[in-house]
Amino acid sequence: MADYFTHFSCLIDVGSPDKAARALALFQRLRAADQDADDPEVSGFTLERQDAPEGSTLWIHDDEHGDVEAVIRFVLRLAEDFELTGLWGFQYGLTCSRPRLDAFGGGAHVIDLGAQKSVGWTSSQEWLAAALNGEEVDA
């Protein structure tokens, strides 16, 4: 039997050490609440302070089986709670423990933090399928 994995590792700067501490506290509260939830809010990733206690950058990375949608929901929540602005994005990789067709690929998402919405995404699997079907694709 094959195991499928989604991996990512990215940074987000929340603007101040206080906001970073509050973001970590929010993550811990949500993680504790997820223990009994049918639809966990922050499963599939870990949040850690990237730099010293006086820094404002947080490291988001998968905890073996990453959940891209959970990362997006959490970052949108941070954008709302901390009034973040600008564009932010991350990439992810899809892998498998054994060779399987359609088991490898990846993608990326871009979020407008100020508007609190996704502004674009891409999937290498969908891009490849479209290109092989003769559709016009951006290189």
Question: Could you explain how this protein is built, in words?
Answer:
It is a single chain. The chain is of the alpha+beta class and 139 residues long. The chain contains 3 helices and 7 strands; from the N terminus they run E-E-H-E-E-H-E-E-E-H. The strands form 2 sheets. It has a 4-stranded antiparallel sheet with strand order 1-5-6-7. A 3-stranded antiparallel sheet has the order 2-4-3, covered by helices on one side. Strand 6 (105-112) and strand 7 form a beta hairpin. The longest helix is centred in the first third of the chain and has 18 residues, at 17-34. The protein is globular. The model has no long low-confidence stretch (mean pLDDT 92).
**Morphology:** globular
Quick one: how many beta strands?
7
Strand content: 25-35%
Helix proportion: 25-40%
Compute the separation of the termini in Å.
35 Å
Residue ranges: pLDDT <50 for 5 or more in a row? none
Q: What is the H/E order?
A: EEHEEHEEEH
Alpha carbon gyration radius: 17 Å
Describe the largest sheet. Answer: 4 strands, antiparallel
